[in-house]
Specification:
Elements: E1 2-3, H1 7-18, E2 29-30, E3 33-35, H2 46-52, E4 56-58, H3 79-91, E5 94-96, H4 102-111, E6 116-117, H5 135-143, E7 148-151, H6 173-187, E8 193-197, H7 220-227, H8 232-250
Parallel strand pairs: 1-2, 3-4, 4-5, 5-6, 7-8
Helix pairs in contact: 6-7
Length: 255
Amino acid sequence: IKMLMTQEDLQEHDSLWKSRRGDEKLPIGIILSMEGADPVMSPDTLVDWWDLGLRAIEPAHYGRSHYASGTATEGPLTAAGRELIDEMGRVGIALDVTHLCDESMAEALDRYQGPVWASHHNCRTLVPGDRQLTDDQIRQLIARDGVIGVALDAWMLSPDWVKGETDPSTVSMQDVADHVDHVCQLAGNTRHSGIGSDLDGGYGTEQTPGDMKSIYDLLKLEDILSSRGYSDADINAIFYDNWIRKMMATLPTRD
């Protein structure tokens, strides 16, 4: 892997991959994000995390963190959470709202004025539950030029999914496209939808769409979206350009 810490790092790595020849082996570029902020012992250490390459934070994961309430809980930011959000804005670390409960998310979005996104989130209109974004939350992110990355965990794609019981064949990449399309319809364009995947989320093909057997099958989205009227430029935006644009607007320059 290669850590991408600046705009120039991202531009150079993007160019490297676009000029890749055949099966040439190249490092995978990563932009470091933290899922659940508890490793940050106190907000005043964020500048040290920044120097090490941290560029985005989800304040909570499942349950409550020291800073916020996450999935399956309720509540606002804690006092320490408000300090964390303020310091993130001062240092330049982006806010990933993924997993924040509704109240914590609302407060965080109101308090933080820097770059925001939802790295792996789906739509509550299609699949009920507090792990999903409401249409109003999606509109808030759209208004902030955020990107929402679709997640491929089957229970987030189908309202009838029962973990450990439902046959994966009942869910398909068409369901993934439904969530992508819902975000695009709310936005009126393809600028705010991306791929979040979460395919390293602790599950395998027993909990992914039945027609997805490897990461390569993400490419099935191309034909599905094309059949729904999405142009090549639209599809490129969803697959990578939206994230490139957002990261370029977030990362610092080398200076």
